[in-house]
Design brief:
There is one protein chain. With about 600 residues, this protein is α/β, with parallel strands linked by helices. The chain folds into three domains: about 5-35 and about 65-185 and about 220-395, no CATH class; about 185-220, no CATH class; about 420-570, IlvD/EDD C-terminal domain-like (Glucose Oxidase, domain 1), CATH 3.50.30.80. About 35% of the residues lie in helices and about 15% in strands. The chain is built from 23 helices and 14 strands. It has helices at about 5-20, 20-35, 45-50, 60-65, 90-100, 115-120, 125-140, 160-170, 190-200, 205-215, 230-240, 255-270, 280, 285-295, 305-315, 320-325, 345-350, 350-360, 455-460, 480, 490-500, 580-585, 595-600; strands at about 70-75, 105-110, 150-155, 175, 385-390, 390-395, 420-425, 425-430, 440-450, 470-475, 505, 520-525, 540-545, 550-555. The strands form three sheets. An eight-stranded mixed beta sheet has the order 7-8-12-11-10-9-13-14. A four-stranded parallel beta sheet has the order 2-1-3-4, with helices on both faces. It has a two-stranded antiparallel ribbon with strand order 5-6. Helix 8 (about 160-170) links the parallel strand 3 and strand 4. The two termini are about 30 Å apart. It catalyses: 6-phospho-D-gluconate = 2-dehydro-3-deoxy-6-phospho-D-gluconate + H2O. Pathway: Carbohydrate metabolism; Entner-Doudoroff pathway. One of its GO terms (cellular component) is cytosol. Belongs to the IlvD/Edd family. Its EC number is 4.2.1.12.
């Protein structure tokens, strides 16, 4: 593309060069898989009969290979609000498949954890590794060799990355992700945040907090703040894996149903087209587009872990250096809560992903020439879907409907992206700048060192943190305890910051797109377990965190100290069954995956 930004081009070419051998091996494997399994008629009669025995009215079509048979891999459960709508999808999808001479079967289900339910609880220690379990579950679902394409029904935090990683191992087939959309807007986000901080200070009751939370998370659909779940949907649009514009259309609407129906028809259409296989759609340019979208929208920091793992599954080498260099040239064009006041419904109304993709393409910040499931390139994703009567159409988005939320890349909120790499003698970490006021990007203060969120909360309640302080929470990495998200740290640290103190967080654990306004160096690698530098810090050591200069350091002589050793309680809530995941996990920058590490990917 002639107007492609020089840095975006250079980073892409570096990723291509770094991925040359692994990508070739991956594409060779996909070619062999296509040749080895041309269609389900290669199955024995007994195998095939088992495969369509319960297909009822679709039995004859599958038996005679009348048309493509499409797999549905679903993360449905009705505890997780974002996934509850999926309960009605498979019966509808089977009808829509028949409309175009195809068939569809539920190939399998995957787990779907809700970090909103497990945050601060023991169950959160299974959350990150549920991504590997989802990838493995997707692989099991697709292992029956009955299918000509994949529908991937998932939205939330680890679920889309896990589905992606599993689908990549069947990349000789085409795949379309189908979202269900965000729930309607609840109470104002500032009001929700206020009640949380009041509760942290002991000025609101549990009943008042629960009423507030219930008014925010109140119906089927994705949570409306711009966290990991909605960042997932953004990335699927940037990589061309949705029907264009499908990300943020609410459940239960005629447009939502029309988009899902179009996905079924489209997958049936491209089922026999190797040029639209998942492996061909997901190349180095598509991964760069996902990273650009993440930076331009101030998306979830969790994707600093997920995106390298997703790329690895498709033979592509992507790391934090690539993300940081892109961040230097990709402007912040959105402010969606917690980076702004409005939620994803307001974002959608203002122009949504169609506007974002259009402005990025116009400024040469994204690759137009990628293979997408929606068309010949990314251009159609710069439009928005609408219903002309009963007909699904696409139209130009026009100008931003709210310049306080959505701006052109030529006049952004911030000249660079929403994330920065910080590094020094405390390791390498990610800093989400888009949610933090620039005057807070540098904090230098004595540290207080903790091993649990509960210990931080206890010190806060005793007034021990009423000072300029860098709070260090260590032994929260993937090998220590599965790298749980540390949501419960945000309200007390926010209170300290509001009291006028200079406050920062440094941790080898995770914070998500909901991490908020406190400066934080997260995903610190090497992690404390095994002797990483955080294990050598002591209370009172001076720690400097600076997003401006990219610094994460201490003046303490770490080499002169032995690392602290902490033994975690790894039993209860099934955590003992995940011991092999912890023992074999690689670093956060590589994706914190035991599955990929053991597979040699």
């Amino acid at each position: 593309m002639s107007n492609l930004n020089d840095t975006v081009h250079r980073v892409t070419q570096r990723i291509v060069a770094n991925s040359r051998d692994s990508r070739r091996r991956y594409l060779d494997l996909m070619d062999r898989e296509r040749e080895r399994q041309p269609d389900r008629n290669s199955l024995s009669c007994s195998n095939l009969a088992h495969g369509f025995a319960a297909a009822l009215e679709d039995q004859q079509a599958i038996k005679t290979n009348r048309g493509p048979n499409l797999a549905i891999v679903t993360a449905y459960n009705d505890m997780l609000s974002a996934h509850q709508p999926y309960g009605t999808y498979p019966p509808q999808m089977k009808v829509w498949a028949r409309e175009v001479g195809a068939t569809a079967q539920v190939a399998g289900g995957t787990p779907a954890m809700c970090d909103g339910v497990t945050q601060g609880q023991d169950g959160m220690e299974l959350s990150l590794f549920s991504r590997d379990v989802i990838a493995l579950s997707t692989t099991v679902a697709m292992s029956h060799a009955m299918y000509d394409g994949m529908f991937l029904l998932g939205i939330c935090d680890k679920i889309v990355p896990g589905l992606f990683m599993g689908a990549a191992r069947f990349g000789h087939l085409p795949a379309i992700f189908i979202p269900s959309g965000p729930m309607p807007t609840g109470i104002a986000n500032k009001q929700k945040q206020k009640v949380r901080q009041l509760y942290a200070e002991g000025k609101a009751t549990r009943a008042e907090l629960l009423d507030s939370e219930s008014a925010s998370y109140h119906s089927p659909g994705t949570c409306t703040f711009y966290g990991t779940a909605n960042s997932n949907q953004m990335m699927m649009e940037m990589m061309g894996l949705h029907i264009p514009g499908a990300a943020f259309v609410q459940p239960g609407t005629p447009l939502r149903q029309a988009l899902s129906r179009a996905a079924v028809h489209r997958l049936a259409q491209i089922a026999d087209d190797p040029a639209h296989s998942f492996a061909r759609c997901i190349d180095e340019k598509a991964i760069v587009n996902a990273a650009v979208g993440l930076l331009a929208t101030g998306g979830s920091t969790n994707h600093a872990i997920h995106l390298p793992a997703m790329a690895r599954a498709a033979g592509i080498a992507f790391d934090w250096n690539d993300l940081a260099e892109l961040s230097g040239v990709v402007p912040l064009v959105t402010r969606v809560y917690p980076n702004g006041s409005g939620d994803v419904n307001h974002f959608q109304d203002a122009g949504g992903m169609g506007y974002v993709i259009g402005t990025l393409l116009s400024e040469g910040l994204a690759h137009r020439d990628i293979v997408t499931v929606g068309g010949d390139d990314l251009s159609i994703y710069a439009q928005e879907p609408w219903l002309d009567g009963d007909a699904l159409e696409w139209r130009d988005v026009g100008k931003s409907g709210d310049p306080e939320m959505l701006r052109p890349a030529s006049d952004p909120f911030q000249a660079d992206g929403g994330m920065r790499l910080v590094e020094g003698n405390l390791g390498r970490a990610c800093f989400k700048t888009s949610a933090v006021e620039p005057e807070r990007w540098t904090v230098e203060a004595p540290c207080r060192v903790f091993e649990t969120q509960a210990a931080v909360a206890d010190a806060f309640s005793k007034g021990e943190l009423d000072c300029d302080v860098v709070v260090v929470v260590r032994f929260q990495g993937p090998r220590a305890n599965g790298m749980p998200e540390l949501h419960k740290l945000t309200p007390p640290l926010g209170v300290l910051q509001d009291r006028g103190y200079r406050v920062a967080l440094v941790t080898d654990g995770r914070m998500s797109g909901a991490s908020g306004k406190v400066p934080a160096a997260i995903h610190c690698t090497p992690e404390a377990l095994g002797g990483g530098p955080l294990a050598r810090l002591r209370d009172g050591d001076i720690v400097r965190l600076c997003a401006q200069t990219g610094e994460l350091s201490t003046t303490a002589d770490l080499d002169a100290r032995e690392p602290v050793v902490v033994t975690e309680d790894e039993h209860g809530m099934g955590r003992e069954l995940f011991a092999m995941f912890r023992a074999n996990a690689d670093s956060a920058e590589k994706g914190a995956s035991s599955m990929l590490a053991l597979a040699g990917l």
